[in-house]
Amino acid sequence: MTRSVVWPATLLRSGFLMPVLALAGCVSLGGAEPPESLLTLTPTSIAPAGAAISAQRGDALALHEPAVPAELDVLRVPVRIDDANLAYLKDAVWVERPAQLFRRLLAETIRTQGERVVLSGGDPAARGSLQLRGNLSSFGYDAAQSAVVVRFDATLLGSDGVVEQQRFEVIESGVMAEASRVGPALNRAANDVAMQVAEWLE
Predict the structure, then answer these.
(1) pLDDT tens figures, 38-83
(2) Residue 25, domain member (yes or no)
(3) What is the 3 state secondary structure string of 128-168?
(4) Does residue 126 form part of some domain?
(5) Domain count along the chain
(6) I want to staple 16 with a disulfide (CB 3.0 to 4.6 A). Which of 2, 11, 118, 140 is the partner?
(7) Residue 103: domain span
(8) What is the pLDDT of residues 161-192, one digit of tens each?
(9) In CATH, what number is assigned to the domain containing residue 181?
(10) Mean pLDDT of 16-39
């Protein structure tokens, strides 16, 4: 049974109804169109099934999810227009937050390249092991350079109390500001940075 909505005469006379109807045509309450595809990161090297690695607890690596600025703590790809302006790339949506995707990519790369046991930073078994933390300060598109930029500042805390820091950065220029071009370019740059980190840890 369909019920008709009766608007009070006072609203009709005051002209309040027209703005309400106009607003209804601009606002979606849950029926938004999903993106055609979602972006993700895929490691260029993956450990084969059945490959076993063992290590003393002090030699294992506890990998923490990197810290990110607010612009990266979303599912969108930031576009740096200039020093004071930021936007997001049209139709570019990550399947997970960039920090989660990058941590997973980094873990797989370190595991396969360095044959090192990699533990989640929150795993109780990670206590007493090497601790790798970092700041993923850039992971998006730079409009001025027509380039994707991935910048990761790594901090390694040794079980002996020694702290090491290193910055890793990859810039891939000549990339058009389209989701179909920026997504693969960010994947390549992220893999390059992950490989550099793995080599640094050896």
Answers:
(1) 999 999 987 666 565 655 555 688 899 999 999 999 999 999 999 9
(2) no
(3) CCEEEEEEEEEEEEECCCCEEEEEEEEEEECCCCCEEEEEE
(4) yes
(5) 1
(6) 11
(7) 57-201
(8) 899 999 999 999 999 999 999 999 999 999 99
(9) 3.40.50.10610
(10) 51
